Every structure is written in C-alpha cells, then in structure tokens.
C-alpha cells in the first residue's frame, strides 16, 4: 500500500482583492477583501451566487490571476504563479484528449520529474482509488462524463499537492453520478488528507462535503458567513439538523441573490438543487 | 457510465457493420459515376461528335486500359505524385512550425499575417509563369508552384488549430506542471492542435494535386498533366479523358486515405 509522502498544507488568504479594468476604463471590484485561514487537510467549501467572484478567488489561488491587493500563502509561501503543488479539478474535466487515461494521470507526475516506473505506480494506484484501474489504456473519449471526472480527480490527487482546488467539479454531471462522485471524493480525501478548496453553487453538496462552509456575498465577493459542519461522515443531508443548516444558508443566499439581481425573490424560490 | 453488455456487444457489431458500411458509403459515388457515363453515352449517340472531340466511353476505357498496361499511366502518376509529395512535405516543414508560432504569439501574428493575407489570394496557378521564368521547366519550378498551393491551407489550418484550443486545457497544463511557455507549447499547444493540423495536411494535399496538374500542363515532359496536354496536342481526346479520369480517381483515393487517417486520429484525439 502506498501512502502519501506529505499531507496538505495550510492556506492563508489575507486581505485579497481583485479589481478589473473594463474596456471603457471603469474599475470593477470583483473580489474582496477576503481573508480566510484554511487548516492543513481541511475541506473548505465556498458557496455563493453567480458572479460573486468565487471563481476569481480560485483563479488567484491557482496562480492564473495576480491579486490587486493582499496575498495568498500556502504553507507560508506566497503564490506567484501556477504550480503542480496546487492541483485543480475543473468543471469541464480538462483532460488531455491526445493522452490515454493513464498518461493523463501521469502528466503532472512527469512534470515533477518523478522517474517513469514510480510515475506509473503512482498513476495506477490513483486510478485504482477511483475504480478506473481497468481503463488505464483507454482513450479519454471512450469515457462517460462521470468517468472523466474520476480520471481528473485521480490526476489531481496523484501529484500529491499541498492544496486541491475544485471549481464546481460536479456541476456538469447528472444528479446520481454527482452523488456517487461526492462519496468517492470524500473516501479518497479521508485516505489522503489534502487541503481542499471546493467551489459549488449547490448548498446540499456543500453540506455533504465540507468541514467548513463559507458563503460569499454578491459582487464584490466577500465572506458573508461561515459554518463549521461537525456531523460525522457519511452525512445524511436529510437529517433534521442538516435540513436546518440548509434553510439557514438558503436564507442568506436568497438575500444575496436578490441584491445581485436587484429584484425581490419570493421566499420559496430556493429548491434549485 | 457504459454498461458491460454494451461493451461486450461492440466487437460483434463492428465485424458485421464494416463491410456493409463500406458498401453503403461507396454507393453514392457509384451512382454518380454510372450517371455520368450514361449521359456521356447519350450525348455521343445523339450528337455523333468526331471521336477526336468526344469519343465513346468504351473507347476511353480501352485507352485507359492500354495506358495502364504499357506502364505510361503508372510512370506519369509516379512523376506527379513524387512532385506533390516532396512539395507537400517541404511545405509542412515550413507551414506547421510557423503556424504554431503565429497561433500562439499575437505579436508574431501581427508581424506576418499581413504578408499572408496579401499573398494568399494569388492562385498557385498565377505563379506558374514566374516559376518557369525563375526555374525553367525542371523539377524545382513545379515543386515551387505546389509549395505555394499547399502552404496556405496548412498554415491557416495550423493557426486555427492553436487558436481554437480550449483555454481550460492550457490552465490544466499549467496546473499540472507546465510552468514555462516552452513546456506549455510543447506539451499542450502542439498536441492539442494536431487534429486541425491533420485537416490542413489533407486539404493541402488536395490543392497540391490540383496545382501539379496545372503546372505540368504548361511546363513538363512527364506527369499526368503532361499526359492530358499531350493528348490535346495530338488530337487524342480519348487520352485526355483517360488522363482526367486517372487524376480524378487518384485525387479521390488520396482524400479518402487522409480522411481515414483523420478518423483514426480524431478517435484518439477525441
């Protein structure tokens, strides 16, 4: 049995803001200031209305965007650009179609200059974790959406990152596949405690997965509220306690949505997921 | 998720389907060929033209058989094909790397694109007189003309391939360790634009095949273009038509071959 060589690192986000300049010269505040401390191995889920800047936050954490002010530090080191130390799972899978399933998982390992034999071992191990060991030599387009996302999850875990960034990873999947993959993700995460920053607009998903849930406000995105979820896993999201939490979060989100759409929302318009 | 039953049924289904599909695919072409021959025969019966202007289909078939048997057709095909392949390869060596660079660097594109847009509308055929003045009627002149004819389809297709890459793949490349521009270029941009490059190679082979015939019409002693030009000179319409049929059939076969490669490649490239 292979064990992870390191576990996740803590993430500190301090006074992070991001503003854009539009073509007409206006400055748009997209994000912040946001300050969060994420513990090593913590599963953080961020929920927010569309356009609240949660994706912007993830882009900054991935190193694709430079923050306008403030900083994000992983294990004390500031983020300066993309790194294999912060792997990512994308909503649209973003697998490389010219590579086989195994080669996709090996891709990041090869860039880390892990020798070929060890690379293969690690990749196969992670494919086994997502139950796709038998599909190692298949090409990507032979897989269903759910299988593709399992490969993407294997790829993200295989590089043994300090932090895993997940950008609405199950947003494009059907409800049943989604439910299945949420369980798979938790099972692997409980085995290899990576620090996870997970973005979703599904409140149920957040409650099912998170150690801690952050709700972001509409633009400019700020942390509006925070809940720690202590219920033991696997969670029954239909329990009285978690239903109560769901109602609280929706109440807050409805307020934010109303602000961002500048319309009155009726009280019951929350049964989206 | 795919069920087991569907997976195990697949080999059976493919063994049954392939011969049927091949027949089904060739039917429209057979239909077109038969129709053309029928109309041709009908016109000959109705207008009774001089055979040096329009011979019977059967005469042309006989000439085609004769040209095949005495090896003339094979030799001319080899000459034409040799010229196209060398110019096409030469073109690929220049156009594909240039296209990859132009697609990935806006500055380079701004620098080179105006030249492309100015030169591209000049048909490769318009270069033939200049090619003769510069190179005479040797091999280099014809290779030059085919080079012009194959260069732009390859270049434009490669540029489009690079520009059409899903930005999320570039992000994935960066997040999984391609931290330098060069690494990202080689590991993600080049393979991601391959399907489009293959399309460019196919289209360029077609334009190259058209260009070589034209070049051989006016400046050659060998090749399929020469064969039909010579047929005209000696008033042998049957040879002209036999040559045209050979050009058409070969062009069609090359394209089918490239489509097959492309299909295979696209399956891997998803």
Features of the shown structure:
heterodimer; A: 273 residues; alpha/beta; Rossmann fold; six-stranded mixed sheet; four-stranded antiparallel sheet; 7 helices; 34% helix; 23% strand; disordered N terminus; B: 270 residues; mainly alpha; MetI-like fold; 2 domains; 10 helices; elongated
Q: What features would you describe in this structure?
A:
- The complex is a heterodimer of chains A (273) and B (270).
- In chain A, the strands form two sheets. In chain A, strands 6-7-8-3-9-10 form a six-stranded mixed beta sheet, with helices on both faces. Chain A has a four-stranded antiparallel beta sheet with strand order 2-1-4-5, covered by helices on one side.
- Chain A has a domain at 1-85 and 193-262: Rossmann fold (3-Layer(aba) Sandwich), CATH 3.40.50.300.
- Chain A is built from seven helices and ten strands.
- Chain A is an alpha/beta fold and 273 residues long.
- Residues 1-5 and 263-273 of chain A have low confidence and may be disordered.
- Chain B has helices spanning 4-47, 57-69, 72-104, 106-119, 128-135, 139-163, 167-175, 181-218, 224-233, 237-269.
- Chain B has two domains: 1-48; 55-269, MetI-like fold (Orthogonal Bundle).
- Chain B is mostly helical and 270 residues long.
- The A-B interface holds A 62-64, 81-84, 86-88, 90, 92, 94-99, 107-108, 110-112, 139-141, 144, 146-147, 155, 159, 165, 177 and B 1-2, 166, 168-169, 171-179, 183, 187-188, 191-192, 194, 267-270.
Poorly predicted regions of chain A: 1-5, 263-273
Q: Which band does the percent of strand residues of chain A land in?
A: 15-25%
In angstroms, what is the radius of gyration of chain A?
Answer: 19 Å
Count of runs of 4 or more consecutive helical residues of chain A: 7
Characterize the largest beta sheet of chain B: strand count, sense, and whether it forms a barrel. Answer: none
Order of helices and strands of chain A: EEEHEEEHHHEHEHEEH
CATH class of the domain at 1-85 and 193-262 in chain A: Alpha Beta
Largest inter-chain contact set: A-B, 33 and 24 residues
Question: CATH superfamily of the domain at 1-85 and 193-262 in chain A, please?
Answer: P-loop containing nucleotide triphosphate hydrolases
What oligomeric state best describes the polypeptide chains here?
heterodimer
Please give the CATH architecture of the largest domain in chain B.
Orthogonal Bundle
Strand order of the largest sheet of chain A: 6-7-8-3-9-10
Strand content of chain B: under 5%
CATH superfamily of the largest domain in chain B: MetI-like
Estimate the global geometry of chain B from the Cα principal axes. elongated
Order of helices and strands of chain B: HHHHHHHHHH
Q: Got a strand count of chain B?
A: 0
State the end-to-end distance of chain B: 17 Å
- Give the integer mean of the pLDDT values of chain B: 89
